[in-house]
Amino acid sequence: MGVERKIRAVLEKYRGYNLSFEIRDGIVFLYGRVNSHEEWVRIGLEVGRIRGVEGVVNRIVWDGYPEEEAKKREERRRKIFEENKDKVVGSYDVVIVGGGVVGAAIARSLSKYQLKIALLEKAPDVGAGTTKANNGMIHAGVEPPRGTLKRKLNVEGCRMYEKWAQELRFKYKRVGSLWLITPRTLAKYKKYIPGPLYTLILKYVLPYIVVLKGLINGVSGLKVVRGRKLFEMEPYAARDALAAVYVPWTGIVDPYEVAIALAENAAANGVEIHTSTEVVGFVREGDAVKGVVTNRGTFLCRYVVNAAGLYADEIAELAGSPEFTIHPRKGVIVLFHRCTSRYVNHCLAEIILPPHPLTKGGGINPTIHGNVMWGPTAVEVPDKEDTSVSSEEVDLILSKYSTILSEFPKDRVIRYFAGVRAATFNEDFIIRPAKWVRNLLHVAGIQSPGLAAAPAIAEYAVKKLKEMGLELREKPDFNPYREPIPSLREMSEEEIEERVRSDPRWGNVLCECEMVSEAEVVEAVRRGARTLDAVKRRTRAGMGECQGSRCLLRVAEVLARELGVPMTELLKEEAPLFDGYVRGEAW
Protein backbone atom coordinates (compact mmCIF):
# COMPACT_ATOMS: atom_id res chain seq x y z
CA MET A 1 0.00 0.00 0.00
CA GLY A 2 1.44 3.39 -1.00
CA VAL A 3 1.88 6.33 1.34
CA GLU A 4 -1.18 8.14 0.01
CA ARG A 5 -3.41 5.11 0.53
CA LYS A 6 -2.09 4.66 4.05
CA ILE A 7 -2.79 8.28 4.91
CA ARG A 8 -6.30 7.97 3.49
CA ALA A 9 -6.79 4.88 5.62
CA VAL A 10 -5.83 6.88 8.72
CA LEU A 11 -8.13 9.77 7.87
CA GLU A 12 -10.94 7.36 7.03
CA LYS A 13 -11.09 6.51 10.73
CA TYR A 14 -12.06 10.14 11.31
CA ARG A 15 -14.51 10.33 8.41
CA GLY A 16 -16.94 12.61 10.23
CA TYR A 17 -14.46 15.48 10.09
CA ASN A 18 -13.85 16.24 6.41
CA LEU A 19 -10.08 16.05 6.75
CA SER A 20 -7.73 16.39 3.78
CA PHE A 21 -4.03 16.17 3.04
CA GLU A 22 -1.36 16.83 0.47
CA ILE A 23 2.19 15.51 0.08
CA ARG A 24 5.15 17.63 -0.98
CA ASP A 25 8.60 16.05 -1.22
CA GLY A 26 7.79 13.50 1.49
CA ILE A 27 6.17 16.04 3.82
CA VAL A 28 2.50 15.48 4.66
CA PHE A 29 0.30 18.53 5.24
CA LEU A 30 -2.94 17.79 7.11
CA TYR A 31 -5.98 20.09 6.97
CA GLY A 32 -9.40 20.22 8.62
CA ARG A 33 -10.97 20.52 12.02
CA VAL A 34 -11.54 18.01 14.83
CA ASN A 35 -13.23 18.14 18.18
CA SER A 36 -10.26 17.80 20.50
CA HIS A 37 -6.54 18.32 20.91
CA GLU A 38 -6.23 14.61 21.73
CA GLU A 39 -7.56 13.74 18.28
CA TRP A 40 -5.18 16.28 16.70
CA VAL A 41 -2.27 14.52 18.36
CA ARG A 42 -3.51 11.04 17.54
CA ILE A 43 -4.02 11.76 13.84
CA GLY A 44 -0.59 13.36 13.56
CA LEU A 45 1.10 10.41 15.23
CA GLU A 46 -0.70 7.86 13.09
CA VAL A 47 0.37 9.64 9.91
CA GLY A 48 3.88 10.19 11.24
CA ARG A 49 4.33 6.44 11.78
CA ILE A 50 3.76 5.66 8.11
CA ARG A 51 6.97 4.55 6.45
CA GLY A 52 8.05 7.07 3.84
CA VAL A 53 6.57 10.10 5.64
CA GLU A 54 9.50 12.43 6.34
CA GLY A 55 7.51 15.01 8.27
CA VAL A 56 3.99 15.93 9.29
CA VAL A 57 2.78 19.53 9.22
CA ASN A 58 -0.46 19.24 11.13
CA ARG A 59 -2.64 22.19 10.16
CA ILE A 60 -5.77 20.61 11.50
CA VAL A 61 -7.29 22.74 14.24
CA TRP A 62 -9.36 21.56 17.17
CA ASP A 63 -12.37 23.09 18.91
CA GLY A 64 -10.92 25.63 21.30
CA TYR A 65 -7.76 26.15 19.24
CA PRO A 66 -6.41 29.60 20.21
CA GLU A 67 -6.74 31.18 16.76
CA GLU A 68 -6.91 34.73 18.10
CA GLU A 69 -3.67 34.29 20.08
CA ALA A 70 -1.97 32.84 17.00
CA LYS A 71 -3.05 35.85 14.93
CA LYS A 72 -1.82 38.28 17.59
CA ARG A 73 1.51 36.47 17.77
CA GLU A 74 1.84 36.61 14.00
CA GLU A 75 0.95 40.30 13.92
CA ARG A 76 3.46 41.07 16.66
CA ARG A 77 6.21 39.27 14.76
CA ARG A 78 5.31 41.10 11.56
CA LYS A 79 5.54 44.45 13.30
CA ILE A 80 8.95 43.67 14.87
CA PHE A 81 10.13 42.35 11.49
CA GLU A 82 9.26 45.60 9.72
CA GLU A 83 10.95 47.66 12.43
CA ASN A 84 14.20 45.70 12.37
CA LYS A 85 14.73 44.17 8.93
CA ASP A 86 16.91 47.06 7.74
CA LYS A 87 19.09 47.31 10.87
CA VAL A 88 22.12 45.13 10.19
CA VAL A 89 23.78 43.71 13.31
CA GLY A 90 26.59 41.99 11.45
CA SER A 91 27.48 39.41 8.84
CA TYR A 92 28.07 35.77 9.81
CA ASP A 93 29.02 32.47 8.26
CA VAL A 94 26.54 30.61 10.47
CA VAL A 95 23.64 31.82 12.59
CA ILE A 96 22.27 29.29 15.08
CA VAL A 97 18.72 29.83 16.28
CA GLY A 98 18.23 28.39 19.77
CA GLY A 99 20.50 28.42 22.81
CA GLY A 100 19.53 25.15 24.45
CA VAL A 101 22.06 22.40 25.01
CA VAL A 102 21.87 21.36 21.35
CA GLY A 103 22.29 24.87 19.92
CA ALA A 104 25.16 25.54 22.33
CA ALA A 105 26.79 22.21 21.43
CA ILE A 106 26.61 23.01 17.72
CA ALA A 107 28.06 26.47 18.39
CA ARG A 108 30.97 24.98 20.30
CA SER A 109 31.64 22.35 17.61
CA LEU A 110 31.62 25.03 14.89
CA SER A 111 33.94 27.23 16.96
CA LYS A 112 36.74 24.77 16.15
CA TYR A 113 36.75 26.25 12.65
CA GLN A 114 37.58 29.62 11.16
CA LEU A 115 34.02 30.86 11.00
CA LYS A 116 32.07 33.84 12.25
CA ILE A 117 29.17 32.45 14.26
CA ALA A 118 26.23 33.95 16.12
CA LEU A 119 24.03 32.02 18.55
CA LEU A 120 20.59 33.61 19.02
CA GLU A 121 18.46 32.84 22.07
CA LYS A 122 15.17 34.60 22.77
CA ALA A 123 15.37 34.03 26.54
CA PRO A 124 17.76 36.08 28.71
CA ASP A 125 19.96 33.01 29.24
CA VAL A 126 21.11 29.89 27.44
CA GLY A 127 19.60 26.59 28.52
CA ALA A 128 16.48 28.33 29.78
CA GLY A 129 13.94 26.41 27.68
CA THR A 130 13.48 22.66 27.44
CA THR A 131 17.04 22.08 28.67
CA LYS A 132 16.52 23.46 32.16
CA ALA A 133 13.76 20.99 33.03
CA ASN A 134 15.59 17.88 31.84
CA ASN A 135 16.22 15.25 34.53
CA GLY A 136 19.93 15.17 33.67
CA MET A 137 20.07 11.50 32.77
CA ILE A 138 22.56 10.41 30.11
CA HIS A 139 20.81 7.42 28.60
CA ALA A 140 22.91 4.57 27.27
CA GLY A 141 20.86 4.03 24.09
CA VAL A 142 19.05 0.76 24.79
CA GLU A 143 15.53 2.14 24.52
CA PRO A 144 15.31 4.04 21.18
CA PRO A 145 13.85 1.94 18.35
CA ARG A 146 16.17 0.42 15.79
CA GLY A 147 16.60 2.34 12.58
CA THR A 148 16.04 5.74 14.19
CA LEU A 149 18.48 8.62 14.14
CA LYS A 150 17.92 9.11 17.88
CA ARG A 151 19.19 5.57 18.56
CA LYS A 152 22.37 6.10 16.56
CA LEU A 153 23.17 9.51 18.07
CA ASN A 154 22.17 8.45 21.59
CA VAL A 155 24.65 5.59 21.62
CA GLU A 156 27.42 7.74 20.14
CA GLY A 157 26.66 10.80 22.29
CA CYS A 158 26.60 8.88 25.56
CA ARG A 159 30.16 7.64 24.90
CA MET A 160 31.37 11.21 24.26
CA TYR A 161 30.28 12.68 27.59
CA GLU A 162 33.35 11.76 29.57
CA LYS A 163 35.60 13.73 27.19
CA TRP A 164 33.15 16.64 27.20
CA ALA A 165 33.12 16.69 30.99
CA GLN A 166 36.92 16.61 31.18
CA GLU A 167 37.29 19.49 28.74
CA LEU A 168 34.44 21.65 30.00
CA ARG A 169 34.74 20.74 33.68
CA PHE A 170 31.04 20.14 34.32
CA LYS A 171 29.93 17.51 36.80
CA TYR A 172 29.38 14.10 35.27
CA LYS A 173 29.11 10.69 36.88
CA ARG A 174 28.51 7.28 35.35
CA VAL A 175 26.21 5.79 37.95
CA GLY A 176 24.71 3.07 35.75
CA SER A 177 21.08 2.11 35.77
CA LEU A 178 19.16 -0.86 37.13
CA TRP A 179 15.97 -1.90 35.38
CA LEU A 180 13.93 -3.97 37.77
CA ILE A 181 11.85 -6.92 36.65
CA THR A 182 9.02 -7.60 39.08
CA PRO A 183 5.75 -9.56 39.13
CA ARG A 184 4.16 -6.41 37.65
CA THR A 185 6.41 -6.43 34.58
CA LEU A 186 4.21 -8.73 32.49
CA ALA A 187 0.99 -8.33 34.45
CA LYS A 188 -0.96 -7.56 31.29
CA TYR A 189 -0.02 -10.97 29.87
CA LYS A 190 -0.16 -12.98 33.08
CA LYS A 191 -3.50 -14.57 32.26
CA TYR A 192 -1.87 -16.24 29.24
CA ILE A 193 1.11 -17.67 31.17
CA PRO A 194 0.68 -20.51 33.72
CA GLY A 195 1.84 -19.69 37.27
CA PRO A 196 5.37 -21.18 37.64
CA LEU A 197 6.20 -20.37 34.01
CA TYR A 198 5.37 -16.70 34.63
CA THR A 199 8.05 -16.37 37.30
CA LEU A 200 10.50 -18.44 35.27
CA ILE A 201 10.14 -16.13 32.27
CA LEU A 202 10.57 -13.04 34.43
CA LYS A 203 13.71 -14.35 36.13
CA TYR A 204 15.49 -16.20 33.36
CA VAL A 205 14.15 -15.21 29.95
CA LEU A 206 13.10 -11.56 29.89
CA PRO A 207 16.36 -10.18 31.35
CA TYR A 208 18.34 -11.73 28.50
CA ILE A 209 15.91 -10.35 25.91
CA VAL A 210 16.67 -6.87 27.29
CA VAL A 211 20.42 -7.58 27.14
CA LEU A 212 20.02 -8.75 23.54
CA LYS A 213 18.12 -5.57 22.65
CA GLY A 214 20.98 -3.55 24.07
CA LEU A 215 23.52 -5.48 22.01
CA ILE A 216 21.47 -5.03 18.85
CA ASN A 217 21.34 -1.28 19.54
CA GLY A 218 25.12 -1.21 20.00
CA VAL A 219 25.16 -1.00 23.80
CA SER A 220 27.52 -3.54 25.31
CA GLY A 221 28.23 -4.44 28.92
CA LEU A 222 24.66 -5.04 30.10
CA LYS A 223 24.43 -7.60 32.89
CA VAL A 224 21.67 -9.60 34.50
CA VAL A 225 21.64 -9.46 38.30
CA ARG A 226 19.44 -11.36 40.73
CA GLY A 227 19.06 -12.16 44.40
CA ARG A 228 21.65 -10.92 46.88
CA LYS A 229 23.72 -9.18 44.23
CA LEU A 230 20.75 -7.03 43.22
CA PHE A 231 20.14 -5.86 46.78
CA GLU A 232 23.84 -5.27 47.41
CA MET A 233 23.77 -2.87 44.48
CA GLU A 234 20.48 -1.26 45.48
CA PRO A 235 19.56 -2.09 49.09
CA TYR A 236 16.15 -0.38 49.00
CA ALA A 237 14.99 -1.79 45.66
CA ALA A 238 11.54 -3.34 45.54
CA ARG A 239 11.67 -6.47 47.68
CA ASP A 240 9.67 -8.43 45.11
CA ALA A 241 12.21 -7.72 42.33
CA LEU A 242 12.93 -11.03 40.61
CA ALA A 243 15.85 -9.82 38.51
CA ALA A 244 17.32 -6.66 37.05
CA VAL A 245 19.34 -5.57 34.06
CA TYR A 246 22.35 -3.42 34.88
CA VAL A 247 23.25 -0.81 32.25
CA PRO A 248 26.73 0.50 33.11
CA TRP A 249 26.81 3.37 30.58
CA THR A 250 24.08 5.48 32.15
CA GLY A 251 25.35 8.77 33.55
CA ILE A 252 24.02 11.89 35.24
CA VAL A 253 24.78 15.58 34.70
CA ASP A 254 23.28 18.95 35.51
CA PRO A 255 21.65 19.81 32.15
CA TYR A 256 21.89 23.58 32.41
CA GLU A 257 25.46 23.38 33.66
CA VAL A 258 26.25 21.49 30.45
CA ALA A 259 24.53 24.13 28.29
CA ILE A 260 26.26 26.98 30.11
CA ALA A 261 29.66 25.28 29.86
CA LEU A 262 29.21 24.74 26.13
CA ALA A 263 28.14 28.35 25.58
CA GLU A 264 31.00 29.73 27.66
CA ASN A 265 33.54 27.66 25.78
CA ALA A 266 31.99 28.58 22.43
CA ALA A 267 32.14 32.27 23.39
CA ALA A 268 35.77 31.91 24.47
CA ASN A 269 36.46 30.56 21.00
CA GLY A 270 34.83 33.47 19.24
CA VAL A 271 31.11 32.67 19.02
CA GLU A 272 28.85 35.65 19.65
CA ILE A 273 26.08 34.73 22.11
CA HIS A 274 23.04 36.98 21.74
CA THR A 275 20.45 36.37 24.46
CA SER A 276 17.05 38.14 24.66
CA THR A 277 17.19 38.01 20.87
CA GLU A 278 14.01 36.72 19.30
CA VAL A 279 13.86 35.64 15.67
CA VAL A 280 10.79 37.11 13.96
CA GLY A 281 11.48 36.37 10.30
CA PHE A 282 13.98 35.88 7.52
CA VAL A 283 15.21 37.86 4.56
CA ARG A 284 15.06 35.55 1.57
CA GLU A 285 16.77 35.79 -1.79
CA GLY A 286 15.63 33.09 -4.17
CA ASP A 287 15.80 29.76 -2.39
CA ALA A 288 18.26 30.95 0.28
CA VAL A 289 18.11 32.87 3.54
CA LYS A 290 20.23 36.02 3.47
CA GLY A 291 19.41 37.39 6.88
CA VAL A 292 17.82 36.38 10.18
CA VAL A 293 15.60 39.20 11.43
CA THR A 294 15.29 39.64 15.18
CA ASN A 295 14.06 42.19 17.68
CA ARG A 296 17.66 43.52 17.73
CA GLY A 297 18.15 43.78 14.00
CA THR A 298 19.17 41.55 11.11
CA PHE A 299 21.99 39.01 11.25
CA LEU A 300 23.21 38.54 7.68
CA CYS A 301 24.33 34.97 7.12
CA ARG A 302 25.50 32.27 4.75
CA TYR A 303 23.96 29.37 6.70
CA VAL A 304 21.27 29.03 9.35
CA VAL A 305 20.81 26.25 11.90
CA ASN A 306 17.28 25.83 13.23
CA ALA A 307 17.81 24.46 16.76
CA ALA A 308 14.86 26.32 18.25
CA GLY A 309 13.46 23.42 20.28
CA LEU A 310 9.76 23.87 20.95
CA TYR A 311 9.62 26.63 18.35
CA ALA A 312 11.59 24.87 15.60
CA ASP A 313 8.39 24.37 13.59
CA GLU A 314 7.60 28.09 13.73
CA ILE A 315 11.16 28.99 12.70
CA ALA A 316 10.88 26.53 9.81
CA GLU A 317 7.61 28.15 8.75
CA LEU A 318 9.07 31.68 8.99
CA ALA A 319 12.06 30.61 6.88
CA GLY A 320 9.79 29.17 4.18
CA SER A 321 10.39 25.48 4.74
CA PRO A 322 7.64 24.09 7.00
CA GLU A 323 8.36 20.37 7.33
CA PHE A 324 7.11 19.31 10.76
CA THR A 325 4.86 20.36 13.61
CA ILE A 326 5.98 20.25 17.22
CA HIS A 327 3.40 18.73 19.55
CA PRO A 328 4.40 19.71 23.09
CA ARG A 329 4.65 16.88 25.61
CA LYS A 330 4.86 17.91 29.24
CA GLY A 331 6.83 16.03 31.86
CA VAL A 332 6.51 16.60 35.61
CA ILE A 333 9.40 15.83 37.96
CA VAL A 334 9.42 15.64 41.76
CA LEU A 335 12.66 16.56 43.55
CA PHE A 336 13.63 15.28 46.99
CA HIS A 337 15.96 16.55 49.69
CA ARG A 338 19.61 15.49 49.65
CA CYS A 339 19.08 13.40 52.77
CA THR A 340 17.31 10.87 50.53
CA SER A 341 20.43 10.19 48.48
CA ARG A 342 21.34 7.10 50.53
CA TYR A 343 18.26 5.34 49.17
CA VAL A 344 19.38 5.47 45.53
CA ASN A 345 22.68 4.40 43.99
CA HIS A 346 21.68 4.02 40.34
CA CYS A 347 19.09 5.34 37.93
CA LEU A 348 16.18 3.01 38.69
CA ALA A 349 13.23 1.95 36.59
CA GLU A 350 10.71 -0.84 36.68
CA ILE A 351 10.20 -2.57 33.37
CA ILE A 352 6.49 -2.66 32.50
CA LEU A 353 5.45 -4.30 29.24
CA PRO A 354 4.16 -3.34 26.80
CA PRO A 355 6.08 -0.07 27.10
CA HIS A 356 4.44 3.28 26.62
CA PRO A 357 4.65 3.99 22.87
CA LEU A 358 5.93 7.55 23.31
CA THR A 359 8.14 7.61 26.42
CA LYS A 360 10.69 5.50 28.23
CA GLY A 361 8.42 5.52 31.26
CA GLY A 362 10.45 7.59 33.70
CA GLY A 363 11.90 6.35 36.95
CA ILE A 364 13.97 7.34 39.97
CA ASN A 365 17.35 9.02 39.50
CA PRO A 366 20.06 10.40 41.73
CA THR A 367 21.07 13.90 40.66
CA ILE A 368 24.63 15.08 40.25
CA HIS A 369 24.13 17.39 43.25
CA GLY A 370 22.99 14.63 45.61
CA ASN A 371 19.21 14.97 45.41
CA VAL A 372 16.80 12.34 44.11
CA MET A 373 14.28 12.86 41.30
CA TRP A 374 11.13 10.92 40.50
CA GLY A 375 9.58 11.18 37.05
CA PRO A 376 9.03 12.51 34.47
CA THR A 377 5.47 12.01 33.31
CA ALA A 378 4.47 12.37 29.67
CA VAL A 379 1.30 14.33 28.87
CA GLU A 380 0.38 15.93 25.53
CA VAL A 381 -0.50 19.60 26.06
CA PRO A 382 -1.75 22.24 23.59
CA ASP A 383 0.44 25.02 24.99
CA LYS A 384 4.22 25.03 24.47
CA GLU A 385 4.64 27.09 27.62
CA ASP A 386 2.49 24.90 29.85
CA THR A 387 4.78 24.09 32.77
CA SER A 388 1.99 23.93 35.30
CA VAL A 389 1.95 21.16 37.91
CA SER A 390 -1.18 19.96 39.63
CA SER A 391 -1.42 18.09 42.91
CA GLU A 392 -2.90 15.17 40.96
CA GLU A 393 0.24 14.98 38.82
CA VAL A 394 2.48 14.93 41.88
CA ASP A 395 0.31 12.25 43.50
CA LEU A 396 0.50 10.21 40.31
CA ILE A 397 4.31 10.27 40.38
CA LEU A 398 4.48 9.40 44.06
CA SER A 399 2.14 6.50 43.47
CA LYS A 400 3.54 5.23 40.16
CA TYR A 401 7.19 5.01 41.18
CA SER A 402 6.73 3.97 44.80
CA THR A 403 6.83 0.32 43.72
CA ILE A 404 10.49 0.75 42.70
CA LEU A 405 11.83 1.56 46.15
CA SER A 406 10.79 0.43 49.58
CA GLU A 407 11.14 2.64 52.67
CA PHE A 408 11.83 5.81 50.67
CA PRO A 409 10.81 8.93 52.66
CA LYS A 410 8.31 10.42 50.22
CA ASP A 411 7.60 13.30 52.59
CA ARG A 412 11.01 14.88 51.85
CA VAL A 413 9.87 16.60 48.64
CA ILE A 414 11.47 20.04 48.24
CA ARG A 415 10.21 20.98 44.80
CA TYR A 416 8.26 19.85 41.76
CA PHE A 417 8.42 21.31 38.29
CA ALA A 418 7.59 20.58 34.67
CA GLY A 419 9.28 20.87 31.32
CA VAL A 420 7.94 20.47 27.80
CA ARG A 421 9.49 18.15 25.20
CA ALA A 422 9.74 19.23 21.56
CA ALA A 423 8.32 16.13 19.88
CA THR A 424 7.53 15.84 16.18
CA PHE A 425 4.96 13.41 14.82
CA ASN A 426 7.72 11.19 13.42
CA GLU A 427 8.98 10.78 17.01
CA ASP A 428 12.57 10.92 15.80
CA PHE A 429 15.27 13.57 15.52
CA ILE A 430 15.03 15.61 12.32
CA ILE A 431 18.54 16.72 11.35
CA ARG A 432 18.71 17.47 7.66
CA PRO A 433 18.96 20.32 5.16
CA ALA A 434 15.64 22.06 4.67
CA LYS A 435 13.79 20.90 1.60
CA TRP A 436 12.91 24.32 0.24
CA VAL A 437 15.67 26.60 1.64
CA ARG A 438 19.10 25.52 0.51
CA ASN A 439 21.17 27.07 3.33
CA LEU A 440 18.94 26.13 6.27
CA LEU A 441 19.68 23.08 8.45
CA HIS A 442 16.90 21.72 10.65
CA VAL A 443 17.95 20.26 14.00
CA ALA A 444 14.49 19.55 15.38
CA GLY A 445 12.41 17.04 17.28
CA ILE A 446 15.16 16.75 19.87
CA GLN A 447 13.24 15.16 22.68
CA SER A 448 14.70 12.53 25.02
CA PRO A 449 17.40 11.24 24.69
CA GLY A 450 18.47 14.59 23.25
CA LEU A 451 20.67 15.52 26.20
CA ALA A 452 22.53 12.21 25.98
CA ALA A 453 22.83 12.53 22.23
CA ALA A 454 23.87 16.19 22.22
CA PRO A 455 27.62 15.66 21.57
CA ALA A 456 26.86 13.42 18.60
CA ILE A 457 24.06 15.71 17.38
CA ALA A 458 26.54 18.58 17.24
CA GLU A 459 29.05 16.59 15.19
CA TYR A 460 26.30 15.29 12.93
CA ALA A 461 25.01 18.83 12.35
CA VAL A 462 28.51 20.08 11.47
CA LYS A 463 28.88 17.19 9.03
CA LYS A 464 25.56 18.14 7.40
CA LEU A 465 26.64 21.78 7.10
CA LYS A 466 29.82 20.66 5.40
CA GLU A 467 27.80 18.58 2.95
CA MET A 468 25.70 21.69 2.29
CA GLY A 469 28.83 23.55 1.22
CA LEU A 470 30.16 25.18 4.40
CA GLU A 471 33.94 25.26 4.21
CA LEU A 472 35.57 24.06 7.43
CA ARG A 473 39.13 25.18 8.07
CA GLU A 474 40.43 24.25 11.49
CA LYS A 475 41.23 27.03 13.91
CA PRO A 476 44.79 26.53 15.17
CA ASP A 477 44.14 28.28 18.48
CA PHE A 478 40.90 26.52 19.40
CA ASN A 479 40.82 25.98 23.15
CA PRO A 480 38.60 23.06 24.20
CA TYR A 481 38.91 23.78 27.92
CA ARG A 482 36.77 25.83 30.26
CA GLU A 483 36.99 26.48 33.98
CA PRO A 484 33.83 26.41 36.12
CA ILE A 485 32.99 28.95 38.82
CA PRO A 486 34.78 27.81 42.01
CA SER A 487 32.29 26.51 44.56
CA LEU A 488 32.58 27.32 48.27
CA ARG A 489 30.82 24.09 49.27
CA GLU A 490 33.45 22.01 47.48
CA MET A 491 36.48 23.75 49.03
CA SER A 492 38.62 22.59 51.94
CA GLU A 493 38.81 24.79 55.04
CA GLU A 494 42.32 25.85 54.05
CA GLU A 495 41.18 26.88 50.59
CA ILE A 496 38.25 28.85 52.00
CA GLU A 497 40.55 30.71 54.40
CA GLU A 498 42.90 31.56 51.56
CA ARG A 499 40.04 32.75 49.37
CA VAL A 500 38.56 34.92 52.13
CA ARG A 501 41.94 36.48 52.81
CA SER A 502 42.29 37.50 49.17
CA ASP A 503 38.63 38.52 48.72
CA PRO A 504 36.29 38.94 51.74
CA ARG A 505 33.27 38.33 49.51
CA TRP A 506 34.09 34.61 49.70
CA GLY A 507 33.24 34.82 53.39
CA ASN A 508 29.83 36.37 52.80
CA VAL A 509 27.55 33.34 52.43
CA LEU A 510 24.30 34.38 50.74
CA CYS A 511 22.71 30.93 50.37
CA GLU A 512 23.19 28.79 53.45
CA CYS A 513 21.49 25.66 52.08
CA GLU A 514 23.89 25.40 49.15
CA MET A 515 26.80 27.37 50.69
CA VAL A 516 26.93 30.01 47.94
CA SER A 517 29.06 33.08 48.57
CA GLU A 518 28.78 36.63 47.29
CA ALA A 519 31.95 36.07 45.26
CA GLU A 520 30.28 33.26 43.30
CA VAL A 521 27.26 35.42 42.48
CA VAL A 522 29.55 38.23 41.33
CA GLU A 523 31.42 35.80 39.11
CA ALA A 524 28.16 34.47 37.66
CA VAL A 525 27.18 38.01 36.68
CA ARG A 526 30.62 38.58 35.19
CA ARG A 527 30.07 35.49 33.04
CA GLY A 528 26.76 36.74 31.69
CA ALA A 529 24.00 35.99 34.22
CA ARG A 530 21.39 38.75 34.02
CA THR A 531 18.46 37.26 35.93
CA LEU A 532 17.94 35.62 39.29
CA ASP A 533 17.37 32.23 37.66
CA ALA A 534 20.52 32.63 35.56
CA VAL A 535 22.50 33.18 38.79
CA LYS A 536 20.73 30.21 40.34
CA ARG A 537 21.67 27.90 37.47
CA ARG A 538 25.33 28.93 37.69
CA THR A 539 25.75 28.88 41.47
CA ARG A 540 22.80 26.84 42.90
CA ALA A 541 21.83 29.79 45.11
CA GLY A 542 18.19 29.09 46.03
CA MET A 543 18.21 25.42 45.06
CA GLY A 544 18.50 23.99 48.55
CA GLU A 545 15.93 22.90 51.09
CA CYS A 546 14.39 26.36 51.58
CA GLN A 547 14.21 26.93 47.79
CA GLY A 548 15.35 30.54 48.12
CA SER A 549 13.04 31.70 50.89
CA ARG A 550 16.02 32.80 53.01
CA CYS A 551 18.52 33.93 50.37
CA LEU A 552 16.46 35.42 47.55
CA LEU A 553 16.68 39.01 48.77
CA ARG A 554 20.39 38.77 49.54
CA VAL A 555 21.15 37.36 46.08
CA ALA A 556 18.87 39.95 44.47
CA GLU A 557 20.70 42.79 46.21
CA VAL A 558 24.06 41.61 44.87
CA LEU A 559 22.62 41.01 41.41
CA ALA A 560 21.09 44.52 41.30
CA ARG A 561 24.33 46.07 42.50
CA GLU A 562 26.45 44.23 39.93
CA LEU A 563 24.07 45.03 37.09
CA GLY A 564 23.70 48.63 38.24
CA VAL A 565 19.91 48.56 38.21
CA PRO A 566 17.25 49.03 40.91
CA MET A 567 15.82 45.85 42.33
CA THR A 568 12.46 46.67 40.80
CA GLU A 569 14.02 46.09 37.38
CA LEU A 570 15.39 42.65 38.16
CA LEU A 571 13.99 39.68 36.29
CA LYS A 572 13.38 36.23 37.70
CA GLU A 573 13.63 34.61 34.28
CA GLU A 574 11.70 36.73 31.82
CA ALA A 575 9.15 38.28 34.19
CA PRO A 576 9.92 40.90 36.88
CA LEU A 577 11.23 39.44 40.14
CA PHE A 578 9.34 41.91 42.31
CA ASP A 579 5.82 43.24 41.89
CA GLY A 580 6.39 46.88 42.85
CA TYR A 581 8.92 48.72 45.00
CA VAL A 582 11.17 46.79 47.34
CA ARG A 583 11.09 47.91 50.96
CA GLY A 584 14.25 49.71 52.01
CA GLU A 585 15.27 50.60 48.47
CA ALA A 586 15.25 54.29 47.60
CA TRP A 587 13.16 55.49 44.69
Describe what this molecule looks like in 3D:
The longest helix has 23 residues, at 195-217. With 587 residues, the protein is an alpha+beta fold. The strands form six sheets. Strands 4, 5, 12, 13, 14, 15, 22 and 23 form an eight-stranded mixed β-sheet that branches. Strands 16, 18, 19, 20 and 21 form a five-stranded antiparallel β-sheet that branches. The radius of gyration is 25 Å and the shape is globular. The protein contains 15 helices and 25 strands. It starts with a helix and ends in a 24-residue tail after the last helix. The protein has helices spanning 3-12, 37-48, 67-84, 101-110, 149-168, 195-217, 227-233, 255-268, 312-319, 391-400, 450-467, 493-502, 518-526, 532-539, 552-563, and strands at 20-24, 27-34, 55-62, 88-97, 117-120, 137-138, 172-173, 177-181, 223-225, 243-247, 251-253, 272-274, 279-285, 288-294, 297-306, 326-336, 347-350, 363-366, 372-375, 379-380, 413-424, 430-433, 440-444, 509-511, 516-517. Helix 4 (101-110) packs across helix 11 (450-467), helix 13 (518-526) crosses helix 14 (532-539) and helix 13 (518-526) packs across helix 15 (552-563). A hairpin with a 4-residue loop joins strand 24 (509-511) and strand 25 (516-517). It is 32% helix and 23% strand.
